[in-house]
């Protein structure tokens, strides 16, 4: 699982450079290597590390019953961003040799029935903090990726995700006003990274209310920061999460050009 996560983090050293440095070309062959990592994992149920609150005997069940769409890849958020990876690769290389397998894997996971169960699970009693904010932010990034993909299967999967998407947004809208201070460690729970994915989604979805909440939260937590060692910190963020900088930089450039 660690190998897969490291591979995911390194993915978009693909085609974008920071500080005007050159990066190796990310071609179809390289994409296939990443696709194989995701395909080997998204439906591999065990080993599995679940963060699970039991409300009754009925909640004693395997991952495939509890969270049927995202039950592989060792934990829930890894399964979510494994599915995001497949969508991203399909959008970038639609005719690659792995495309058929990737489409089949997504079709198996992102069914209306599976995602309805995921939404029901998320809304369950005692699960207010489930995958918050990291996993929920990644879920919204998956939703954003599908919304931007002009493809019939993507449209269907996006519609199937809507109940879970709405549950995640509502959960985060309830949580953000209560958050008294940001988590600044460079781990899953860090606030800045989650806010970045949330804002990216909110703008893609045209959810102005959520975008304002996320933006206001970011300003509340970080606008007053002073004397921050910004350049080294940006280099650290790039090494950890280059794909978010790639995605946001490309979108900002597109908006600036009026596309």
Briefly say what this structure is.
This protein has helices at about 1-10, 30-40, 65, 75-90, 100-110, 110-120, 135-150, 150-175, 190-205, 210-220, 230-240, 240-255.
Tell me the span between the first and last alpha carbons.
Answer: 38 Å
Report Rg.
18 Å
Unreliable runs, pLDDT <50, ≥5 residues? 8-20, 242-246, 252-259
Q: In this structure, how is the largest beta sheet organized? A: none
Proportion in β-strands: under 5%
Judging from the principal axes of the Cα atoms, what is the shape? Answer: globular
Helix fraction, binned, reads: 55-70%
Count the E strands. 0
What order do the helices and strands follow?
HHHHHHHHHHHH
Number of helices: 12
* pLDDT averaged residue by residue: 86
How many domains, in number, for the residues?
1
The structural class is mainly alpha
Could you describe the 3D structure shown?
- With about 260 residues, the chain is mainly α.
- The protein has one domain.
- The chain is built from twelve helices and no strands.
- α4 (about 75-90) crosses α5, α4 (about 75-90) packs parallel to α7 and α7 (about 135-150) packs parallel to α9.
- The longest helix is centred in the middle third of the chain and has 24 residues, at about 150-175.
